[in-house]
Specification:
The protein is of the alpha+beta class. The protein is 44% helix and 21% strand. Strands 2-1-3-4 form a 4-stranded mixed β-sheet. A hairpin with a 4-residue loop joins strand 3 and strand 4. The longest helix is centred in the first third of the chain and has 19 residues.
Length: 115
């Protein structure tokens, strides 16, 4: 297997690990808010076909706000913990890295109370 093949396999495994760690995702944003870009990008990511195939039970709820409140992402994990993320100024890589860190902790059966 070449370098590209190994990279693609690693990306697929990370995507499966991400999807398996999440139980529910709630994304709240005003689509016209100046800081909604990352929330919309994360919504696109968790709603993708590959995520749906990796975890068909993942529930994604979107609340479209009319107010100018900043966007918010709440992630409920399979271990019963939850995490609220302020996506303002974050990119999708940062947001997925947060979930990936949590999923690695779950796979080690050593959940940290600090996440």
């Amino acid at each position: 297997m070449g370098k590209l093949g190994r990279t693609l396999k690693a990306v697929e495994e990370a995507s499966n690990q991400l999807a398996g760690a999440m139980k529910n995702v709630q994304i709240r944003f005003n689509p016209f808010h100046s800081h909604a870009r990352s929330a919309k990008a994360f919504l696109k990511y968790v709603s993708s076909a590959s995520m749906r195939l990796s975890n068909p039970q993942l529930e994604v709820k979107v609340d479209i706000l009319e107010s100018q409140d900043p966007p918010e992402i709440r992630i409920d994990y399979v271990d019963g913990t939850s995490q609220t993320v302020d996506p303002v100024g974050a990119d999708v890589k940062y947001l997925t890295d947060l979930v990936l860190r949590k999923s690695r902790l779950l796979s080690q059966d050593n959940p940290s109370p600090f996440l």
